[in-house]
Amino acid sequence: LIERMRVYGETIFAEMTRLATETGSVNLGQGFPDTDGPRPLLEAASRNILEGVNQYPPGPGRPELRRAVSRYRSRHYGIDLDPDTEVYITVGATAGIAAALLALVEQGDEVIVFEPMYDSYAAMVTLAGGVRRPVTLRPDPATGRFVFDPDELRAAVGPRTRMVLVNSPHNPTGTVFTAQELEEIAAVCREHDLIAFTDEVYEFLTFDGRPHVPLATLPGMRERTVSVSSVGKMFAVTGWKTGWVMGPEPLVTAVRTVNQFLTFSANGALQLAIADAIDNEGEWVAAQRAALQGKRDRLAAGLAETGFEVGVSEGTYFVMADIRPLGYTSGVDIARALPREAGVAAVPAQVFYDREKEGEHLLRFAFCKRDEVLDEAVARLTAWH
Ligand code: PMP
Ligand code: GLN
Questions:
Q1: Element containing residue 125 per DSSP (H, E)
Q2: pLDDT digit string (tens) for 268-280?
Q3: List of domains in the chain
Q4: Which ligand is closest in space to the CA of residue 93?
Q5: With contact defined as beta carbons under 8 Å apart, do 132 and 161 qualify?
Q6: CA within 20 to 30 Å of 177's CA: 51, 53, 183, 361, which one?
Q7: How far is the CA of 201 from the centre of ligand 1 (A)?
């Protein structure tokens, strides 16, 4: 293994899911739903396979899906994307993130990234030869939301800064950035001529009526923003690994140049089915959002009763919980002990930080599970504590 990748061992999701399986734990670690996506989507995909949609799709993706992506970004946000040059289909958002960082970050470039950060960002910035400049999200004393300090953001910019990486709705904190928070980021990008990279995979999973605002909709941002999203969270099919990169033609072309040699293309039969589902997304996606909001409330209440200090989750599959009121300090130790001791798996948030101390006392719990599964987890945690 090349030297700069040696610090990246097994991903925390793989480790915790293995531990959960070995111990028969309720797995609230890795974020995946335990119910299926919309029936018509599953049937369409099966039909496509049986009817012979089984050869390479075009490298940039099936035109039907690129057009459907362009339509939904226009319908929801008023963003107009040329499906031929400004939308590109990848093997999950993960491949889009990888291709974008490899395509846009030069050796030695700095990438500003809000921490805690999704694990692939750190590894891919490193693989691209870039350097991370973390800006830490911390709970706002007034609201409990994880927020950044605009001065810390500004102080992170230097002569080698190339990109700001933004994930909203944010994994693992559950923060959904407001238009005002995004404007702080946009102003920095405009002033210093930076590329923005936005990971919007949880765009349809926001709660309490909170809107998702794509950074690209802010003044002066469309031409400098590359975004990724994916089918996994939109339709509760995380194993389908089909995502899309969106942005201005020069940036998407750069991503395409790299990705054609990473995967060449993504799964064709699924792409065709997903295109249809996106065009008919309205009701199912709205119902999923409402159900998840209820699950968030259910798990948050249960965790609070157990004694955790529970964070504010405005979106995603996740809620953060502070272990200090229970008398513990190391989230890594607790996360490793919980499956055996309590029969519940969670993720230690520390692994999402460069400044590890900042997240030492936090666990991330996933609430994208059936109600009875959430109740069982809470019952086990109560018995354990
Ligand atoms: N970004 C974030 C913030 C995620 O939580 C995930 C996990 N699903 C991904 C990207 C990866 O998405 P995909 O499964 O489409 O590769
Ligand atoms: N996105 C999921 C999470 O944050 C897991 C993805 C993965 O296993 N790499 O839990």
A1: helix 119-127
A2: 999 999 999 999 9
A3: 3-36+283-384 (3.90.1150.10), 39-280 (3.40.640.10)
A4: 1
A5: no
A6: 361
A7: 6
